[in-house]
Design brief:
Layout: H1 5-8, E1 18-21, H2 28-37, E2 42-49, E3 54-58, E4 71-72, E5 77-81, E6 95-100, H3 112-118, E7 119-120, E8 123-134, E9 140-147, E10 152-154, E11 157-159, H4 161-169, E12 174-184, E13 188-197, H5 206-218, E14 231-233, H6 247-264
Parallel strand pairs: 1-2, 13-14
Antiparallel strand pairs: 2-3, 3-4, 5-6, 6-8, 7-8, 8-9, 10-11, 12-13
Domain AMP-dependent synthetase/ligase: 9-109
Domain AMP-binding enzyme C-terminal: 163-244
Pfam families: AMP-binding, AMP-binding_C
């Protein structure tokens, strides 16, 4: 919507009061940019999984905090755990989100191994890194950072792809993007971005856009979050029907490119 403002002008959106997002984190920068265009809209976000029977938390119309997935729903309990399984009691401290509610399923049908790995005493280990933060209205909000398995480890420091993606989408040159970690001998992994150019700059050279986007990240993010893995321009970002970025396909694409380069050598 932000990258197709001329198209939106063809439609009457005066009846829209609220917009609700899910499937992937909505960055605070993107939400604020949309709010600037549509100041009367209530831009809300929710989080849940198939195993939790829809959502476990959501933004209420009177307690909106951009970047947050909102407050826990009635009947839902949540814990934040360290990789060692120790419960975190402090705010603003990331760990794995574990939830329990009447809506959480009992397990996976005919799959005892996955059931044992995911469910414990009624608690479901979501596999998502999250933290609890106190919002402007002094209420507790759930912040989803990213899938734990998709976090990029740069010299032992964690980088959430969703954070960099939200930052890149803030830039007018970017219509869509995805970030993955690629192997690096010195750092272990480094971030690489796949970018779909905005229509307005489709004819611009890749090198000039690359320089601008790298500077955009370097001006606002810590050094270990810089796009040292490079930027590759693509026509489309692979996504599931629900809108989740299929980073696995991008990692496969990167591995195949490495194999092809090795074969040429």
């Amino acid at each position: 919507m932000l990258r197709n403002k001329q198209l939106l002008k063809k439609f009457d959106l005066s009846s829209v009061r609220s917009l609700f997002t899910g499937a992937a984190p909505l960055g605070a920068e993107t939400a604020q940019e949309l709010q600037n265009v549509f100041p009367t809209w209530a831009i809300r976000q929710g989080y849940g999984l198939t195993e939790t029977a829809v959502i476990v938390c959501a933004t209420t119309p009177l307690d909106i905090w951009f970047g947050s997935c909102g407050n826990l729903l009635p009947g839902v309990e949540a814990r934040i755990l360290t990789p060692e399984g120790k419960e975190i009691h402090e705010y603003d401290t990331p760990g794995q989100l574990v939830v329990r509610s009447p809506g959480v399923v009992l397990g996976y049908l005919n799959n005892k191994k996955s059931t044992r790995e995911t469910f414990e005493d009624g608690w479901m280990h979501t596999g998502d890194e999250a933290m609890i933060r106190v919002g402007p209205n002094n209420t507790e909000h759930v912040w989803i950072l990213d899938r734990i398995k998709e976090l990029i480890k740069v010299k032992g420091l964690q980088v959430a792809p969703a954070e960099l993606e939200a930052h890149l989408l803030e830039y007018p040159m970017v219509a869509d993007c995805a970030v993955i970690g690629i192997p690096d001998e010195a750092a272990g992994e480094i971030p690489k971005a796949f970018v779909v150019k905005a229509h307005e700059v489709a004819g611009s050279s890749d090198s000039s856009v690359t320089q601008e986007l790298k500077k955009h990240v370097e001006d606002h993010k810590a050094r270990h979050k810089w796009l040292k893995g490079g930027i590759e321009f693509v026509d489309i970002i692979p996504k599931s029907p629900s809108g989740k970025i299929l980073r696995r396909l991008l990692r496969d694409k990167e591995k195949q490119a490495k194999r092809n380069a090795g074969g040429k050598l």
